[in-house]
Fold these 4 entries.
Entry 1:
Amino acid sequence: MRHRRPLSIVLATLLTLAVVSPGSAARDWPPYLRGSDEYPAHIATAVRRLWADATFTRTVSAEPVPVPLAFYLRFVDTPDVTAAAARHLGLTTYRVRVLGGDWYEADDGNRTHGVYHVLVRDGGRRVVVSWGTHSGSILGTIGGSALTRLEFTEARGGATQRLVVNAIVDNGLVAGMTRPVLLLFGWLVDRKLGEAFRTAATVAEWAHGTPDAFCAWLDAAVADERRGEILKVFDECVGADRTADVRP
């Protein structure tokens, strides 16, 4: 996040953080979501557009995470904690704020800002719809949206991770450029889409491998109204020794 990247990489970074009801056609509605009438109209409209008219679609599989799936999912489901721990470890500049009702706000402290809503939490599956903007000196502010399906499974004591993203770039010129650029640099886009996985995995490995350091950091880092909720998730940190060195 600290260096300039090709436009396609910036866009990929920006657009990235069921049962089918009768009448939900596979061609215009994701089969892994509930029926469209079960979502607010603006959410259903955004999802339908992303499913049927995406600027591009990518599927990315990342390296398995050597921590138990249940442990890893706690970091997936508390993105504010994961982002804060990642900043502590020097991995990223991103911040995440909980808005309530499974809505989150994220920014890189500079030019990129977004909001996202978790539509599904079902076992190892998470489905997220997001909107974001990136401001640059060449093309100005570019907006986009994404529908992202994340799949996590248990594998030999660890967790496998995979995502499928449908993204729309709202700037017509850039959207037209994105398709040929992806053909040439798809592997770079895949790498950037996998960054969130790698960041969360590193944080989870740190917390799992050095629980005293993690709990000491968490005790110092979470001091607002989220504290009670967070300690329910990371209950092993309740009453833990706070004298551990919190450095990574």
Note: DSSP finds eight helices and seven strands in the chain.
Entry 2:
Amino acid sequence: MNQNEMRIADSDVSLVSDEWEIINELLSLPGARVVELGCGKADKTRLVAQHAASVLALEVDSTQLANNQAAGEPDNVRFEYGGAENIPAADSSFDIVLMFKSLHHVPIELMDDTFSEIRRVLKPGGVAYISEPVYAGDFNEILRMFHDEKSVREAAFAAEVKAVSTHRLSLVVQKFFLQPMHFENFSQFENQILKVTHTDHTLSPALYDAVRSKFSHHLSPSGANFHMPIRVDLFRKDCS
């Protein structure tokens, strides 16, 4: 598959899946040396570490990094400060690079450098697994009221296409799926989405009420359920 066949979205996607199932389908983790760029709360980091040989988990949000380090590290995980555009690791030192919904958080002017760094730290034949939210769906309609990510998601996709067209990486496969999301109530949405530490979501009272009203349309006695469309792009560093 080449860059001309890459798609930013799939309007016909119907697969509902937890991302861990996609990871297991596309990656071989046993014995792998892994670096995760933008590990966030490190939920997937710790799952990956149960199978991989080692994980270097990088984060630029100092508050979240401190929380991760304070929570304790599995023996084969290191939580360190570092950006995707300047990975603190030697050349050809990892079998797998992971980015879970973090590429579009990289400053646009540094996205190209990010792919140069990914190529640099991957071993020949190593793979980069990059998942990104697709700009569609009911949850996105709420999110874009206060944090419209259309331009940065498009820039992230363009950086991926450029990485393939410049032969830094080759595209192995694209996978689209719908990730289930559940919130018991608006308070949980507020704590998990509005109060993240990596982005300042300071809403005016009027906008806050509008977001709460739109969210409430999805509430049922069992909470609010969404299916977020996700695109996974799997790349390989060729051996040549």
Note: The helical segments are 19-26, 43-49, 62-70, 111-121, 138-143, 150-165, 186-194, 205-216.
Entry 3:
Amino acid sequence: MDYLSINKATWDKRTDIHLESSFYDVQSFINGKCSLNPIEKELLGSVESLDLLHLQCHFGQDTLSLARLGAKTTGVDLSSKAVAAANHLSSKLSLDANFICDDIVQFGEKNDKQFDIVYTSYGVLCWLPDLSQWAKTISNALKSGGKFVLVEFHPINDLLQGYDYFEKSSADIEKEGTYTENCDGKESTIVTWSHSIADVMQALINAGLEIKQYIESPYSPYDCEQDLQHVTGEGFVKHHKGKLIPQIYAIQAIKK
């Protein structure tokens, strides 16, 4: 199964949908809105004049937000349509950003540049069959003492929807729409994998990174799932049997 071609076709299709969505609100971004949330900004710290690699960057809003904050950014994404849109935005906004269309593991095998920071966030890990190769890509791309930041949706949400929590030998293959408000009738085939948080952490440790901070939060910055409730000033929450469940987790690690 050529999962990369299947998922690339899906993300090419999703890019067209996302560019027209209020969820991404491209015009507000062009007008100066920052796409980064407080949790990732705090974990990243000051990025002024730093070389920053953004893996699975989609059409580049976070990458370009980081460029606006002074970073010298490189974004990598599988979707050629997303990368074309990112390059268009970068040119329109005259920002210092470079975008590369590639699978991140294949990118890692070719990349010979090292960065001060590697960053990735929100809905990225389920598309990867092998976390050891992912972590190796991150470690090899970091300078000694460089920082890695991951902010991700908590897998307990997938578990409660009937997906596996622990890794298994086979992928989940299904048809679904995307998470924006304008996705009705626009389903695509996706190939995804389950990863426990322990497997994420162990992959990073095995690749030579030292975990410095781990955070779980009941608040999601995005209203992109069913049954979420908005809490003013905090984000979106969900309850299971009357109890708050974690919505996101975050890891900050340093290359030894």
Note: The chain has one domain: 3-255.
Entry 4:
Amino acid sequence: MSIPRIILKKGEERRLLAGHPWVYDNEVGRLIGPGAEGRALTIENLESGAVVDVETDHKTYIGRALANPHSKIVARIFSPSKEGLDRGFFKRRIRSALERRREFYDLQRESARIVFAEADFLPGLVVDRFVGWPYGDLPSTPDPVTFTLLESQLGPPRSWITVQFLSFGMDSRRTEILGALAEVLLSAELGAPEGLIERDEARVRELEGLPQFSGVIAGTYPPGGVVIFENGIPFAIDLTEGQKTGHFLDQRENRKLAARFARGKRVLDLCCHTGGFALHAAVGGAREVRAVDVSASALEAVRRNWALNRLPPTLTTVEGDVFEVLRNYEQRKEKFDLIVLDPPAFAKSHTALEGATRGYKEINLRAIKLLGEQGTLVTCSCSQAMDEGRFKALVASAASDAEKRLALLDFRYQAPDHPILLGYGESLYLKCGFYRLLS
């Protein structure tokens, strides 16, 4: 099959040859239509979602891509070779991604992101698989809620899938993708999901010329949400509401480590969402946990998860803006032994980086001032535009301005089911530093 070719401007190929999958519109030198005698085209002539080949100006082949003339990212490379884009292709890609997750997780029992877009060579496609039981089916018991208990009383766990089509090329092939996904899950003996939920509210869809949408598109979803387990801790989550796909799977290893610093400590979890760090700290033996978020529904979820874990009444939830709450605590001279900062992305793009840096520095500065003797700060950034060096530098600057000395205990990234693809810096978005206040 003859398809259009994108010929890059001279010198624009280095980033792409290093593995970056995006071709920007200002990198295109010329377009050649299909056929041996292909005529010159403009970007506007391209069909949204069409397959194109990308070459350098000296005819070096770079890869096959999905085009979108309405986006600044005019082509997203999905393969270094001239392969077709049929159901067989999607099955191979999804199967490979699934097998990589098996190296880290027991997918019969654990939830995981099984496709992470460009990092799994499926640009713009995100698939999360959640394993558990309907919340409404939980038995009434004073005993701790464990995976073993629910399995013995409710039978094997079920699964639900959330999917995001974040590029025009993937959205226009959703039938082939969902069919391939179903076949791969069955062949991997993971079974068919109870329900399939689409969570396509991301702004990137607008940039791709796509409408926003959220809802159940196949099967059923229990009205009370579902219960999953993370590091052995039960969480009641709602996959149809809240941020992203309902639960942030990318922080699981970081939450587990944070729990090691919580025993007997006073803990402040800022931007707590549904309580991932707060719950891990409590199960880790914290004597007091204060969970802060601007969302009332998120705090309600924290309280529900606290009750689900049969934890003692050592939780306080605070609804408020993180900047205002930190200023208030500083005025009251409050002190905490463990502070977790996990704010939403302040910088969605490099153009917002300067303002984001100021915001990150302010909340880190104020948090450092609230640390008690030998206190631990767990500070995160999920802004892909905020690279590791810049993030570490702003934490160091915040500590200097607070006239405090910090020691770096550990520095981590997102969980391995959110793989980091070399050459594609945007795939490394989550930074998580563990710091100790020195006396």
Note: The longest helix spans residues 353-370.
